Amino acid sequence: MVNLSVNIGELRFKNPVLTASGTCGYGPELEDFFDVSSLGGIVVKGTTLEPREGNQYPRMAETPSGMLNAVGLQNKGIEYFEKHIYPVIAKYNTHVIINVNGNTIDDYVALSERINKLDKIPAIELNISCPNVKRGGMIFGTNPDSARDVIRAVRAVYKKKLIIKLSPNVTNIVDFARIAEEEGADSVSLVNTLLGMAVDINRMKPSLSTVTGGLSGPAIKPVALRMVWQVSRAVKIPVIGMGGIMTASDAIEFFLAGATAVQIGTATFINPMAPVRILEGIEKYLADKHFSDISEIIGFLNRN
Amino acid sequence: MVNLSVNIGELRFKNPVLTASGTCGYGPELEDFFDVSSLGGIVVKGTTLEPREGNQYPRMAETPSGMLNAVGLQNKGIEYFEKHIYPVIAKYNTHVIINVNGNTIDDYVALSERINKLDKIPAIELNISCPNVKRGGMIFGTNPDSARDVIRAVRAVYKKKLIIKLSPNVTNIVDFARIAEEEGADSVSLVNTLLGMAVDINRMKPSLSTVTGGLSGPAIKPVALRMVWQVSRAVKIPVIGMGGIMTASDAIEFFLAGATAVQIGTATFINPMAPVRILEGIEKYLADKHFSDISEIIGFLNRN
Amino acid sequence: MGKRVENLKVIDNKHLTEDFCVLELRSELGLPALLPGQFVQVKVEGSPETFLRRPVSVHDVDYSENKLSLLIQVLGKGTETLYKLDKGDCLNLLYPLGNSFSDPLQGESVLLVGGGTGIAPLLYLGKYLKNKGLRPVFLLGFRNLSRVILTEEFNSLGDVYITTEDGSVGEKGYVTDHSVLSKIIFNRIYCCGPDAMMHAVAGFCKNKNINCEVSLENLMACGFGICLCCIAETTRGNLCTCTDGPVFNTKDLKW
Amino acid sequence: MGKRVENLKVIDNKHLTEDFCVLELRSELGLPALLPGQFVQVKVEGSPETFLRRPVSVHDVDYSENKLSLLIQVLGKGTETLYKLDKGDCLNLLYPLGNSFSDPLQGESVLLVGGGTGIAPLLYLGKYLKNKGLRPVFLLGFRNLSRVILTEEFNSLGDVYITTEDGSVGEKGYVTDHSVLSKIIFNRIYCCGPDAMMHAVAGFCKNKNINCEVSLENLMACGFGICLCCIAETTRGNLCTCTDGPVFNTKDLKW
Ligand SMILES: Cc1cc2nc3c(=O)[nH]c(=O)nc-3n(C[C@H](O)[C@H](O)[C@H](O)COP(=O)(O)OP(=O)(O)OC[C@H]3O[C@@H](n4cnc5c(N)ncnc54)[C@H](O)[C@@H]3O)c2cc1C
Ligand SMILES: Cc1cc2nc3c(=O)[nH]c(=O)nc-3n(C[C@H](O)[C@H](O)[C@H](O)COP(=O)(O)OP(=O)(O)OC[C@H]3O[C@@H](n4cnc5c(N)ncnc54)[C@H](O)[C@@H]3O)c2cc1C
Ligand SMILES: Cc1cc2nc3c(=O)[nH]c(=O)nc-3n(C[C@H](O)[C@H](O)[C@H](O)COP(=O)(O)O)c2cc1C
Ligand SMILES: Cc1cc2nc3c(=O)[nH]c(=O)nc-3n(C[C@H](O)[C@H](O)[C@H](O)COP(=O)(O)O)c2cc1C
Ligand code: FES
Ligand code: FES
Prior knowledge:
The complex is a heterotetramer, with two copies of chain A and two copies of chain C. Chain A is α/β, with parallel strands linked by helices. Chain A has helices at about 75-90, 105-115, 140, 145-155, 175-180, 220-235, 250-255, 265-270, 275-290; strands spanning about 5-10, 10-15, 15-20, 40-45, 60-65, 65-70, 95-100, 125, 160-165, 185-190, 195, 200, 205, 210-215, 240, 260-265. Chain A has one domain (about 5-304): Aldolase class I (TIM Barrel). In chain A, about 30% of the residues lie in helices and about 20% in strands. Chain A has an eight-stranded parallel barrel with strand order 3-4-7-8-9-10-15-16, surrounded by six helices. In chain A, helix 5 (about 175-180) crosses helix 6 (about 220-235) and helix 7 crosses helix 9 (about 275-290). Chain C is an alpha/beta fold. Chain C has three domains: about 5-95, Elongation Factor Tu (Ef-tu), domain 3 (Beta Barrel); about 100-215, Nucleotide-binding domain of ferredoxin-NADP reductase (FNR) module (Rossmann fold, 3-Layer(aba) Sandwich), CATH 3.40.50; about 215-255, Dihydroorotate dehydrogenase B (pyrk subunit), domain 3 (Ribbon). Chain C is built from five helices and 16 strands. In chain C, the strands form three sheets. In chain C, strands 4-3-7-1-2-6-5 form a seven-stranded antiparallel sheet. Chains in contact: A-B, A-C, B-D, C-D. One flavin-adenine dinucleotide (FAD) binds near residues 50, 57, 76, 77 and 79 of chain C. One flavin-adenine dinucleotide binds near residues 57, 73, 76 and 218 of chain C.
């Protein structure tokens, strides 16, 4: 038997495969396809204090080996979550992590404080990297001072595991990971989407209502992998890797490059069973190579 | 008849399709396939003062809808170019542009001065964005102060058209375009490759000898297009767009987003005839849409 | 009903015109219950341009043979590949997806309006209504003679009226111009077609106070409610076309 | 000779084993002159994983029928798709590419050493040498009986010696262990196979002062000298395997 469990601080994940925020709904949407509790964790939809309608249609464009989205954090707000979603997902036998968003530092703090009270939520992922909102989001994640401020403020009120989700749209992502570490975050997750764009040449208009949107899928894997490699060599806190993971082989690239866990995003749109298939494939790879513990391959590239 | 000619300052290009540096050799390599002089211009291989051996093998990895390279500016140096290449390509009936590289500002300046004397070279492309060399290259292109210094120094000695090739590996590419404009550059070209990485999970090693390399091809098109759109709205000097252009349709996306000309890179590896095919397709699109001049679609998205 | 991912066998691919075909698929697991208006997400293999699945309406169902038919119009790379599929090929489906057209009330007179590929869901809906004892009327809009398809199939279910833009078949003009609309009083109209057609029909219904349902063809990434890309603006806020739709009552839409 | 991009017709695809096949292609334009050791770049359509072309050696040529044969070993997605091609399919080639094996001197005794897919260029080279009046000797290394292929074709050109790793056919061990190497004195050895085999053969030749040429299978992006990705380290600096190679004299390589 291969040990697949990994830790973020003392928080143990039964395996290193999580679903990525905004790509798995709240979990129940996937129940038709597999038992969500079989995963290491699920990171639910980007959540804000107040309900949000998100951006206008069209919000999506297909690109070579990828897609652009401009959802813009559509969600029903934390109150609705507490009342209607939480009771359902609190029953999962896996870690449910909330992706936390806001326009201002106060928003982030208020939301984090509130989630701190939800017993069954062991961690939040602070999204300072959403490219699809006018205020907040990526503005925090691309300016070191703002990043530090929001992380510090949230760390002061949020007592459980704090994961900072980093933006790839920066010159040096390592700077932001170091700031997260210095401010006491327990982990960093990367990458969020790359800022991209597509044009409909027939209509001579941008494909998205917002002109620019977030690029995800296999197209961004090489960039994501490079960033995970850079960050995991620079900080001591565990790194959660994502970006274009479609297969177990992709996920293993991230582990070798230094990721302690991975999140599966866009892949789930195409194959709702992707997260479990990837988990199975990781186990098989480790067995085939005669490893007994996933930790043996985490950061393997950095060992020699 | 459709007018396809475009200008960079008073330098007229008979059409807006150029080959990208490092992806067309010096030109003669393509002569088997088409008449190189039919293009608007060719940007030859990255050139340095001294000959360079480049990086170790392996230098290439295929990725979803793209590829990573780590060539590292292998070239025979300017002296060899002057003696053996220049006499051949000086006969082309199109603009030959040299992609200029160096480790230090002095290198860039010395090389530019020398090229200034080559009558048949009407422009240089200052490469401050090569991700595959330890010194110089991207270091200049990701730090605003260094970028300004090198552009200013070269501008002081180089009298013909100066194009600055920008790196996409920055938080805000507009800052760099503005610096180029302020320092008197005639044009900016973007994007160079995105810094990426791939891992060979069987050998448990990085796929490239240099670990990281430059990502090109359709995978990066959405990012490149977004940057061309951002930059062309921010500066008045013409923007040369590139990144993942495989078809005329891709090129037209760049024109609509604000590019005055485009460069074809990786596409040529797969179809050596890509640059001419793209040129033909652009002409057809304009005719089908009843445009008589390419200028009618350049920056179309920004007009309303 | 549980959604599933399943490989279905292509048992036939009938090319109706140069750009329309009917793909017949067989489920070896046995078809799940499929409602009129529901759709499937097909995975188009073998093309870098078809990264995401393609949504396609349930066109016809034969439970006795576990046969599901799709009507495909070639638009781009994905549908082109579907058009070229051969007997014996496999097609990976994620299904059944979406809501369905709502049942008419007892005794209502119903009209099914379709244009282009929009006629796809109307065949199965027509069959369903006929089974319920109704006599659906069809009003189908095509560009011209060469694009008129499947009229026999519709004829076997109820009266069929046709418009073409050039008048080569049926009445000339758009569906909303057809004389049947002034001759018969309909209580309920189901419509699927190009956006402009659906807006026109919705407008017509609004004026006459007719219950109108349309099936939207919004761009979709997932098709089962997790990406939030496919929204329609409704009086209840942004709803997902793939789960709250594709069928909407036009009075709920901000049209 | 001018390089060109051309669609060739698949006229046959002979499956030799579960992972080896010989693809026969016909040029309707008429084949260009092809030299032994040269290669083609094939475009594998229909897979997002095969963005770049795949280099494949010229395995056999029949000018009278404008027929070009390729020996393919399935390794990944690209070669898998090639294995599945059918009579009538098209394959887009960029060719002819690369240099060629050099001609032996009059009266030289030559040995052609191949392993795995490395035997691909040796058939055409053998034919070429036989046409020149030489009697080439072949030494082919395979993993085991199930992987032994094409021995009849080689037999028709000259003596064939075989090694298998498990001794199931020919002598047991690697090619460099074969007794023929100590029995016959060769003036020139041409080798194509796995890196380890080529290194071993090169080492053997160096010791015995035998002229040795190897065909390298470096990773290529373009195949015609414009990307500089495929370099081999030589005494003359980094050279492109696709234009200065794929055939190199081992004394020029930094091995
Ligand atoms: C619920 C639903 C049911 C559908 N049912 C059918 C059906 O039964 N039969 C059928 O043939 N098609 C149906 N469609 C449309 C079908 O999904 C698209 O035609 C298909 O995805 C196009 O893929 P492609 O790769 O061929 O073209 P692409 O290359 O993806 O697109 C070609 C062109 O069509 C445009 N386009 C593609 N999809 C849409 C869309 N959904 N809305 C507006 N413009 C679009 C693109 O912008 C592009 O200009 C349905 C769509 C939805 C949402
Ligand atoms: C000059 C030349 C001549 C060749 N001649 C032939 C031939 O006649 N017949 C034949 O079957 N093959 C030949 N090859 C090898 C062939 O090009 C590769 O097997 C093919 O590109 C693999 O593509 P794929 O998509 O099937 O596998 P991929 O999915 O691309 O690769 C599968 C695995 O093989 C490895 N791999 C792929 N290509 C190479 C390579 N060139 N060197 C080392 N490892 C590699 C990859 O890293 C990966 O682990 C030749 C290569 C060269 C350079
Ligand atoms: C439709 C869509 C919605 C997303 N919503 C969120 C979100 O709300 N919060 C967040 O942090 N990331 C969001 N993301 C980013 C993903 O969580 C992930 O970081 C990114 O898609 C890269 O991974 P992938 O390539 O595997 O999809 C979203 C991505 C997509 C495609
Ligand atoms: C193999 C290779 C070598 C390159 N060499 C150079 C170079 O020497 N100088 C330079 O400015 N850009 C170089 N580039 C970058 C291209 O000119 C271009 O900016 C980039 O590839 C994006 O365009 P594409 O996606 O169309 O290839 C190189 C790219 C590749 C793939
Ligand atoms: S298509 Fe993803 S939510 Fe509807
Ligand atoms: S493969 Fe491009 S130079 Fe050899």
